[in-house]
Specification:
alpha/beta; Rossmann fold; Helicase, Ruva Protein, domain 3; two-stranded antiparallel ribbon; 47% helix; 10% strand; disordered N terminus
Length: 327
């Protein structure tokens, strides 16, 4: 049966949104690129890169709120809760990229940090533009979220129904909500618990938010996840000590990390890596504290997974390093 609707009571979404979209800075014309088609190729490239630089500067100005978002993400993960990225188009793909990179880099559970894109997995590789207009699909993203979880909605325009539907649903369930957008507007602070509104302005190619807005958004997401992982003890110094060595390159990196952090030879790093069942953190504590695998794991457990704390808790340790070299 076909349901008939009275369209006079509910005007089409396009007529309701046209005015709102036209007022967005992400849809405005950039005066610096009005003659884009007359520029040389090098001039086009230079302009694009200069605008990207400006976008990153604007992201940096929002560092206090970005740090707050990172703290929320760290708290959720530490509690065993979930962090979900949700977005459409380029924004959705950036969320997927962020979630996909966390397990190999930081050893996180793929189910704990995940991402959903409007239109489903097929939309990652082929544009499904109409999917972003479905707020109900966005609401389903948050269907299983609870009070300890965090939803990070990504919407360059700030008005994408899919992203707004996810935010509204998540808030109804008591989850913390974050919106990352490049289009500040009146009333935007009300759509999420924390709004990271990057005023990146018009794009070189009008409306193409995969450019400057995309670069700024990627930088913000990188900062949120990486800072959160630092707080969770998945970094020692500037080394990714919870990486999963799933390839030859990553296995070599794991050994180099043990060499550097443990102050041991390559041969010893390989031995420790095997003895620790490929656990880089455990191998480092074994090297610095001259312990076996199980006592090292226990130290890490007591230290909440932080290598520096585990090492400092031992005897004969100064500034997080063994007082005698193993090299």
């Amino acid at each position: 049966m076909i349901e008939m609707r009275n369209h006079s009571q509910h005007p089409p979404a396009s007529s309701r949104k046209d005015k709102e979209w036209g007022a967005l800075q992400t849809e405005a014309s950039n005066p610096d690129s009005e003659n884009l088609d007359t520029l040389t190729t090098e001039e086009v490239v230079s302009l694009l890169l200069e605008e990207d630089r400006r976008g990153l500067e604007i992201a940096h100005r929002n560092r206090t709120d970005i740090a707050r978002a990172a703290s929320w993400v760290a708290e959720a993960l530490d509690a065993g809760a979930s962090v979900v990225f949700a977005g459409a188009g380029t924004s959705g793909r950036l969320g997927i990229l962020e979630a996909a990179e966390c397990p190999p880099t930081f050893g996180t559970d793929p189910q704990q940090i995940r991402a959903v894109i409007a239109g489903g997995p097929e939309a990652v590789f082929a544009a499904r533009e109409g999917a972003e207009d479905n707020a109900e699909d966005g609401a389903r993203v948050a269907a299983d979220l609870g009070t300890d979880d965090v939803l990070v909605a990504i919407s360059a325009s700030s008005v994408t129904p899919f992203a707004l539907g996810a935010l509204e649903s998540a808030r109804q369930r008591g989850a913390r909500t974050i919106l990352v957008t490049c289009a500040p507007r009146d009333g935007i602070s009300a759509v999420a618990d924390l709004v990271l509104a990057l005023d990146t302005g018009p794009e070189v190619l009008t409306g193409s938010t995969r450019l400057k807005a995309g670069s700024a958004t990627k930088a913000v997401l990188n900062a949120i996840t990486t800072a959160a992982m630092v707080r969770l003890g998945k970094v020692y110094g500037n080394l990714m000590v919870d990486l999963r060595p799933g390839s030859a390159k990553l296995r070599d990196r794991a050994l180099r990390i043990i060499e550097t952090a443990g102050d041991v030879s390559r041969e010893e790093a390989e031995r420790l890596h095997r003895a620790a069942d490929s656990e880089v953190k455990t191998a480092i504590v074994m090297a610095l504290c001259r312990l076996g695998a199980e006592p090292s794991r226990e130290r890490l457990r007591v230290a909440g997974g932080h290598v520096r704390r585990a090492v400092a808790a031992g005897s004969g340790v100064e500034d997080g390093r063994s007082s005698s070299s193993n090299k």
